[in-house]
Every structure is written in C-alpha cells, then in structure tokens.
Amino acid sequence: MSDDGYEVAIVGAGIVGAACADEFARRGLRVILIDREAVGSGATAAGMGHIVVMDDSDAQFALTHYSQRLWQSLRPELPEDVEYDQCGTIWVAADEEEMAEVRRKADYYSERNLVTDVLDEAQLKTLEPNLRPALAGGLLVPDDGVLYPPCAARVLAERAQQHGAKLQLGCAVERMEQGCVQMSDGHEIRAEFLVNAAGAVAPALTPGLEVKKRKGHLVITDRYPKFLRHQLVELGYLKNAHAVTADSVAFNVQPRRTGQILIGSSRQYGAEDKEVDHDILSRMLQRSQEYMPALGSMSAMRTWTGFRAATPDKLPLIGPWPGDKSLFLATGHEGLGITTSLGTARILVDQITGAQPEIPIEPYLPSRNAKEQVHA
Amino acid sequence: MAKFDRARFDVLVIGGGPAGLAAASRAGQHGATVGIVDDNPKLGGQIWRATCEQEHPQTARWSEQLRRANVTVFAGTRVLHQIEPGVLLAEQMQSAHELRYDKLVLATGARERFLPFPGWTLPNVFGAGGLQAMVKCGLPVIGKRVLVAGSGPLLLAVAAYLRNCGARILMICEQTSARALAQFGLSLWREPAKLAQAFRLKKDLAGIPFATRSWPVEAHGSEALESVAISRGGKGEAIACDYLACGFHLIPNTELAALLGCTIENGYVSVSDLQETSVPGVFCAGEPTGIGGVELALIEGQIAGLVAAGQIADARQLSRQRRKALCFARGLEQTFKLNPELQKLAKAETIVCRCEDVTYSRLRPYHSWTAAKLQTRCGMGACQGRVCGPATQFLFKWNPDSVRPPIFPARVESLALRATAATNS
C-alpha cells in the first residue's frame, strides 16, 4: 500500500516534529508524523525542559522570546502531566565580572520589553537560601519556566491527531527525498512536503546538513520539595557553553513539580555513544555542589545522556533545504528545542503556506549555511 | 565531606550470599587478594540472612574461611557503577570507594517477583522473603495469622520459618498446578539432598493447608490488611488474616552484569562451564545465571572463585556436581512458570508502579516500556523499576530498558567524588 494523499510528512516525533504536526494540522493540511520509536523519546525525553529566553544573539532572542509567548498562551490548555511551572530563571553571578554581565543582560532584555529583576547578594540569598554564601548576585527572569517534555510532545501530537494528522510510530526511516519517505520495512509514504525534524539524527537523512551531536548528561534526585524554587544557571555557563570544541560542564538546576531536582549540565562534541561518561558526570555534579553544597547528600535516582542537535552558528535550521524542493528542515535546536518548538512550527508552516511570519525568518533559513559553504 | 577510599584486588566478589561467599573463600584459599562486597550490613545474602543478634550458622562457617583467607569484607556497601574498565564505584553510609579488580565475580542473587492485584499495596501485605527479613529484624509474629501466597520453594521456607517464630500459617497458596509439582517431585529422586530438605520442611509445615492453582485475588482492609480473597483451584474463598506474605518466585539481579556489558539471554547472564561471562575476566555465579537454589549457587560460586584465582583444574572437578544441580534448576523453572491467568489479577485502578503511583489503566495504552515510562513515570522511582519492570514484562510483554548508572540511588557526592578528589589533589 502506498500511503499517498498527505500534504506533509514529518520525520521525527520529538517536540519539534510534534509542534509542526500540530501547526500544519490546525491550518488544515493533511499531515503524517513519523518516528522510529515513540513520541518524544529522543532528545525531547533527555532534555531539561526549560521554556527560557536566551540572548546569545538577536536571532536567538527573537525566536526564544516569540516561542515563550506562544507557550504562555498555550498554557491554559495543557493538562496537569505537562507540569508547566513558571518558576523563573535566576542567572547566578559568582563575582563582579559576572555581575557586569547581569546588568548587560538586564539592559538588553528591558530594551526588548522583557521584565527582569537584578538581584544583589542578599536578595539572591532570600530567593534561594540553599545557594552557597558569598555569591555576587543574579538576574531573575520571572517569565521563564520548566515543563516535562515527553508529555508536552504527546499533547502536541494528540492535538495534531484531533485535527486529522496521522501518527506512524515504531518504524525507522531509511531515506526522505523528492516527496517520498522510504520506511525501513519497505513501504513508502508520499507527500508534497517533507519535514526533517529528526534532531541530531537529521544529517543521516539529509546528507550535507551541518548538524553535529552535542552530548549532554543529566541527573535527577529523589523528592526534596521546596529545596529549590527557581531554575538556576551559573553565568559562567556563558564562558563554558561557548567553547565549541572542549568538553564543558556548568551549574544548571531545576525544581520539578514532583519536588525532584534536575541537575545539569554538560556539553561534549565528538562523543557518539550513549554511555554515561563518569568523568564528565562527576565534574558536572562537583560543579553543582560548588554552587549548592547541600546537593551533595541528596539521593541521585537516575542519570542519563542525550544528544543535542548543534549547528555551527547555534541557530536552528527552519525552512527549505536547497536542492530538494519538497524538503524542509526543522532541526538544529541544540539545547533550546523545547522552548523554540512552538516558534519553529509557526514560522515553518508560515513559509510553506505563504503566510506572513511574525518574526524575521532569515537567520534560521538553511540556505545561510549553504552560502557559507560556498565561500569557505 | 564524605570519605573517599581506593582499594585493589586480584579477585573482587560482588554479593555476599552463598555464591559470593563460596567464590571469595575459594579464590582466597589460593593466595589471591580478595574483596567481597554486599549491600546488607551482614553477609549471608537473602537466604542466609542474619537476625539482629547473630549470623546464620552457614554464614558463620563460610565467614571463618574468609577470615583465614584474609578476604576484605565490604558490608553495607552498594556497587553503583563501573567508572572505567576494572574500576567499580561503591558507596557506604559515610563514604565512597573505588574498587579495582583483575577478575570480578558477580554473585548478585535474586529478588522476589511481585505481581499487582487489587490491594497489594495495603499495609501488612509483604513479600514472602520481605516478611521473613522483617521478622529477623525483630517484627513480632507470635500468634499472628499469616497467609503465604505466590509461587516457588521460597514460600515453603518462609512458612516454616514464620511458624517457628510463632506465627499461625493459615494456608500456603501456590499458583502452579499439583501436576507440575508432582512431576518436579518425581524428578527429585535424583537429588537426595533436596529430598531430605523437602522432608525436613514437610515436618515443619505439618498441618498447614497447601493449595495449588491458588492465588490472591484481592487484599481487603480499611487502613491495613484485614482479609484476602483468594482463588483456590478456580473457586473463590475469603481468608481473614493479619499478614499476607506474597511473592511469585524470583527475578535474578542482573543489573550490574548488564551494565558491564555481559550477554544476557532470556533474563539470565550467559556463562560457560567455568562461569565465565561474555566479558573477559568477569564471572557470574548463583541465581543471576538461572534460579537454581543454594546448592547450585555454592557449586557455581566455588567454580567462579577457583577459575578467577587461576585454579582451573580444581574447578573442573566440580563439573559433574554442577551439571546435576543444573538439572534441578531447570526443573524449578519449568515447575513454577507463571500461569497466564495471573495477568488478569490487576484491574484498571490497581497500582502497578508503587513508587510513582501508576495504575494499570494508565499503562495499558502504551506499546513499549520506554513510551509508558516517559509518559507515566512508571519505573522512575526509588526502586528504579526493580518491582514494576518484571511485573510489566509479565503483564504486557514489555522488554526492559538498558541499565544506566547508578544501579542503586546514590548520594550526589559519591558520584562526584572522582572530580572532587581530582580538585583537592
């Protein structure tokens, strides 16, 4: 049987693919969402699940800010198990140098109408008493939040299904090109448009795509309600995360609805296996203890790894893939896919349906990388 | 800050039950430096578990051999992870250890299998071995009415033990059929020791009703257990009781073997005649290679210890005994196979994952353990799926996940210690 009659076939039912399926279906397109395993079982399940605004670049700010507003308007419709909690982020400054970064960030956000709160040492202590003493201060971003990504992806996929989308799980995709998705069991799915939303696996399906795996480790603790109230990120994170080659760890913790604490983060290039790397794991936990000493005696229940889909310029690839008129990309979201899934879906579907996007889309077009390649 | 120690052994044995004790003492007799690790405060494993006052006499006998062989004992110690080839990370109450080895013997034993039925999470419903362990730690059962139910020879041993402690054993419900038991009984003539054990137990169990093709259908009680509805050979019956001791035979503890990359087939660690796993230098003995009881565990443990210490000729002398004991093990497996009727015990609202309060109806829509886990948190709690994993495998035919460290919940500082030590040095 050939599964014809679809306008869009999306490969990858992570949160990005699920958000795209929802958006296409709600705009009346016939969609099929395909995944080799289950909905939200790849990087979506492995990630921390933050809904955050980030300002590494203007384009990153635009997409994260746009997406966060979309999440906030979706929030009333999300069921309890998505565990959306607008806990806010505190960027923790260890010293005066990092406090300067706090003030720069605060100015940047306020120029773009985003409310933040600069915290001094005492205010930080009041908001998060379990941080170690003698930190310089921090920046509170109250609109930031966290959610539980596998359930969020499921909800988006269910919404898509309610609008007529089909879901095909448990079978891998061999190839996707020229309006045809070739499944590993031999059958083909045809559609006018194909969307590669396969995260870090995307280059295997679209050769030449500049997406690399960036491995991360996470740890979740037993339940310690009220120990932590906000998502905390060290500002040293900026120094660490920007190193494109070296392995790095940074203090990043989140309070979960369950009272559990999610501890991150690590970044590694060139590590292709899923195994927990004990050296990185121990460095990451050591870093977390430096900021919150009481974490040390907490019970760590589970650890896991995942692969971020990283692009050279840290911006996702959203739009047509040069060379195949049927093929579009929605990948390369690195560590921000949960946040930017909704914005990605909007601007991708705008491009395909000819609607006017609400933010400039040029920074995310896959052709930007192709151009760079020509000049390289 | 917690203490951090390093130690190195020619042979390191994980598990202090019969297989581990046998392996450590035989390896130690031949001059190897040997360490033995067990997560309980005292050696002996589940079967030779100590009471608060004293060790089990069998443990005492083997412990004496350990002392003579200068074996280092790490009690109350949990192995968390292999942090690099040949180095295990282990945790105690106040400290963590890096244990290096040349040869490793896994003797990690087995745990009870629980199957969910309505009311199984009520207070005073225990695992059979679980209740025995609590009684050994001081829970008084004199005059208490106890129903023992589930499957496997453990039920008989537990019933006998509890009766000796003064409990009134109302009945033993065994899910398997009288026919399967009879066939097993017939094959026992090859096993005089087993036969004697069966007789000895029979005396301890005299007068206790033993019902086959019987199992608990629902446990009732407002705040704690008051009665159990059972299905006895197809007919319903209600039994008022104070405790239900319930376990459905045993599940091997293969997590560490899996973490080390040992081949596991049909749930058991694959081993050669010399107890070698698929990973060079790693041996496995006792229940993880197949549920076979104490005698097989002792033989396998000795073989593993001898081979790990380079005494292959001595180990080969135990081959015949091993083959005989293996026949008994295969019989056990066949005899206590779970009746598919038991899959119907869980109702829509029955809790399957008690750590995360996940009911049967919430799991039913999913096609895989991974999907169910991600959407419902089934198996994500403190037991790390040790209870609900085997249950869902039986109920839904789901395959378990790959094993990730730490294989037991561990203190954050223990997992961080390598980096902490590097920073401090």
Properties at a glance:
heterodimer, A: FAD/NAD(P)-binding domain, D-Amino Acid Oxidase, Chain A, domain 2, eight-stranded mixed β-sheet, 11 helices, globular, B: alpha/beta, FAD/NAD(P)-binding domain, seven-stranded mixed β-sheet, five-stranded parallel β-sheet
Characterise this structure.
The complex is a heterodimer of chains A (376) and B (425). Chain A is α/β, with parallel strands linked by helices and 376 residues long. Chain A has two domains: 167 residues, FAD/NAD(P)-binding domain; 155 residues, D-Amino Acid Oxidase, Chain A, domain 2, CATH 3.30.9. Chain A has eleven helices and 18 strands. In chain A, the strands form three sheets. In chain A, strands 1, 2, 8, 9, 10, 11, 17 and 18 form an eight-stranded mixed β-sheet that branches. In chain A, strands 5-6-4-13-14-15-12-16 form an eight-stranded mixed β-sheet, sandwiched between helices. A two-stranded antiparallel sheet of chain A has the order 3-7. The longest helix of chain A has 17 residues. The C terminus of chain A is likely disordered. In chain B, the strands form six sheets. In chain B, strands 1, 2, 3, 4, 5, 6 and 19 form a seven-stranded mixed β-sheet that branches. In chain B, strands 8-15-9-10-11 form a five-stranded parallel β-sheet. Helix content of chain B is 34%, strand content 25%. The longest helix of chain B has 17 residues. Chain B has 14 helices and 22 strands. Chain B has three domains: 192 residues, FAD/NAD(P)-binding domain; 134 residues, FAD/NAD(P)-binding domain, CATH 3.50.50; 86 residues, no CATH class. In chain B, α1 packs parallel to α2, α3 packs parallel to α4 and α5 packs antiparallel against α10. With 425 residues, chain B is of the alpha/beta class. Chains A and B meet through α6, β12, α9 and β16 of A and β4, α12, β22 and α14 of B. β16 of chain A pairs antiparallel with β22 of chain B, so a sheet runs across the interface.
